[in-house]
Amino acid sequence: MTLRTDALEADIHYDGAVRSLHVRAAAADALAPFEGEIRPDGEAHLLEGPLSTANAKALQDAFEVLRPQLISRHRTSVGTGDRIGLAGPGQAAAFAAHGQGVMPVLAQQSIREMDRLGRSARTVMDEAVFGLLEAGWEGGFGADCDHIKTTEGIDRGLEAGFVMFTLDPGDHVADVTGGVTAADAASLPWDALEDTLEQTLARYADLTLDVGHSRIEVTEQDVITAAVKYGAAVAEAIRLYRHAMENARHEIEIEFAVDETAWLTTFFEHFYLATELKRLGASWFSFAPRYVDGFEKGLDFLGDPEELRRNLEAHHAISEQFGGYRISLHSGSDKFSIYPLCVEATQGHVHLKTSGTSYLCALEVIAAHDPELFATIWEISRASYVKARASYQVSAHEDRTPTTLEGVDLTELIRSDDARQILHVGYGDSLNAALPSGESIHDRFLRVVAAHQEEHTAVVAEHIGRHLAPFSAGAGA
Ligand SMILES: [Zn+2]
Predict the structure, then answer these.
(1) What sign for the dihedral angle of Cα 316, 320, 322, 326?
(2) Which of 2, 46, 63, 335 could form a disulfide with 11 if both were Cys (CB 3.0 to 4.6 A apart)?
(3) C-beta of residue 66 within 8 angstroms of C-beta of residue 55
């Protein structure tokens, strides 16, 4: 597909697996911001250049639709990560076909994933830009620098032009499952919180919390527990928030996320977090609490859907008491059975994040065209699953999956629960490893997928499209 301005037109050109940028202009000056070889093309000039950061920036300067936008201006949004940098066209095609009314976040990666794959935030942005150009997407997109835990992570995202910052103080959430007393609150960072335990207790004394479907009497013990569990996380969230606000040279939007912790966020704890963050001057458009159990990578929801509905309704009701921010669902891929209820319970004021599911689509292409590469990835993923599962909510049993793939239907394998989760979790170790020949798995993976990009785009578009339809319906499209 081609994007056009008055001065030039651009597209991504494929020569087998080798991609390049083509920019055509009547006036040679219009090509000056781009790097590459210029040759005459009829009356016009054609530049052929690399998919470099310089060219991505030049494209963003030329085409407004290639600059990320604030998704907070839309009520319903879905983010799709892209671990390999070739899924953008399929994701954009999914939004075009099934995502009417849903704002896409097409540049999205957590700092953890970037580090695991050795990618910079700017690489993630560049790949999104080239993917959107390849798709000819003009519907706008958001860019989410996800799960940031350090000010340095914020700097990286700002530098690369991200506009959405998901601040994650999860490492500062305390385990209170053994019970806590007021004495445990003594070590909280009260200076940073500009507060004391007495003032905290007074702020929430005799509160009755309305969560839509029920009312909750808040006890002093609830307040102490919330403060001990989340007090240090509030201080950390504010530290990150202030850093982002002080250093941003363009308009940005904030999500706070505590979803990657082991302990559920109770309704009062959500209320406490929102109250404290607001008291300390933060504003945000999206919040990800830790929900009820059942969100696992790559699988449909495994918990009780009615419990989740009541959970989401309450979180949504609390957000409304603070002016209305959206409830953010992470690890959201492949949860087809619950999307309609997620939209209903939040009245469409919701953000869904998927990250690894597009990688599984790429694996289907690998399995079809390079079974030897797939077998190596399978072996590495299976071996690394046991060690990697500590950092995820996962339940796959590797002993239920085949050790050798002879005679195995690979597409069926990739779509089966255990294997899906193992492959989902094992991407980092796989892509960073080498084949027995010494060849980089990452390089060969990209080459095979790029050589079959049309097929890959179709697989991604179909799979992501299934995610979007219920959100589009809820967005009133
Ligand atoms: Zn998350």
Answers:
(1) positive
(2) 2
(3) no
CA distances from 238 to 193, 194, 245, 247 (A): 9, 11, 10, 14
For residue 71, the one-letter residue type is I
CA dist 217 → 84, 156, 207, 237, 279 (Å): 49, 43, 6, 27, 22
Q: Is 155 labeled as catalytic in the residue annotation?
A: no
- The CATH superfamily assigned to 71-477 is Aldolase class I (3.20.20.70)
Q: Determine whether 146 is an active site residue.
A: yes
Q: 258-314: per-residue pLDDT in tens?
A: 999 999 999 999 999 999 999 999 999 999 999 999 988 888 999 999 999 999 999
State the average pLDDT over residues 341-361.
Answer: 95
Q: Where are the domains of the chain?
A: 3-62, 71-477
Q: Which helix (H) or strand (E) holds 132?
A: helix 121-135
Determine contact, residues 435/373, Cβ cutoff 8 Å.
yes
Nearest CA to 204 out of 276, 280, 277 is that of: 276
CA–CA gap between residue 211 and residue 310 (Å, rounded)? 9
Query: Which whole-number Å values give the CA distances from 194 to 21, 224, 235, 276, in the listed order?
Result: 53, 17, 9, 10
Ligand 1 centroid from CA 259, angstroms: 5
For the record, the structure tokens of 307 come out as 């419990």
> What's the CA-to-centroid distance between 332 and ligand 1, angstroms?
9
Ligand 1 centre to CA of 454 (Å) is: 30
Question: CA-CA distance, 86 to 459, in Å (whole number)?
Answer: 12
State how far the Cα of 251 lies from the Cα of 233, in Å rounded to an integer: 25
Ligand 1 centroid, distance to 291 Cα (angstroms): 11
Catalytic: which of 146, 168, 222, 364? 146
360-376 pLDDT per residue, tens? 999 999 999 999 999 99
CA separation, residue 254 to residues 36, 131, 238, 257, 280 (Å): 37, 25, 11, 10, 15
The helix or strand, by DSSP H or E, that contains position 154, with its residue range, turns out to be helix 151-159
Question: What is the three-class DSSP state of 349?
Answer: coil
Measure 391 CA to ligand 1 centroid, in angstroms: 12
Distance 39 CA to ligand 1 centre (A): 47
